[in-house]
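Dear colleagues,

As part of the handover before I leave the project, I'm documenting each prediction I ran so the next person doesn't have to rerun anything. This entry is a single chain, and its sequence is reproduced below.
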Amino acid sequence: MERQPYRFSELFTGDWKLFEKVIKNPETVFVYDNDGIFSDTSKEVYKRFSEKHGIPVKTSDIDGWTYLTDIARNAGLTEDAINHAEDDFYSPEVLEKSQSILYVKPVIQKTLKHYGPERNFILTSRNSEFKDVTLNWFECKFPEIKPENILIRSNGDNLSGAEFKIQKLKEIASKAPWVVFIDDALKFVQAAIEADIPNCLVVNIPQGKTLPDFTHERLFVIKRYPDGLQAIYPFMDALDRALKNDKSPCLT
């Protein structure tokens, strides 16, 4: 697919000088979400939903956590179909089969090269029962990431997904000058901002139509383009611009 041109200023929202400052620090730590940033889980789930119910759905139309449930209800599907519309998000078979997000490979290669493997983490809200399938997926798709840096809840861990992410972000931030936390889910983005970790930049790379309805000096929104087809290429572009000392990134 030929890459489509875009205006960077229309996709990047946030304090560019702060972003550039943090990206230029060689000791900055990157903490990536998994689903929606590394694993294209939604695409596989939506494909199965469409095949099962004959209703076309796509990630560019996501408008919240209950997207499929709402579609099932509005389409007049059975109560059972409505109640189980999101089940494939919790299927080990689906998680294992999901492909990686477009352009995430060059992104992680870039941050591994510039900051070192020890400063690159995966932080997922998946339940502990999906630990093995998650680690196996990364071993297959991204063996360059240190297994011990793939953070997922363990058996007996009673923390919610958001609580777990905040706990780990605080631990990492306590040992680093800066942390860049990248997530697509609005509830985790908001939780990270509300946790008030002063050296943590929060980068939201939203899927679909879910955008933050709040602002913060440490919040950055970098949209996908076009309609998610080029996935996180704009984020990679932002990294390149910051590392190359682009003085006027919002003009092109």
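Residues 45 and 87 are 9 Å apart (CA to CA). The longest strand covers residues 179-183.

All the best with the project,
I.
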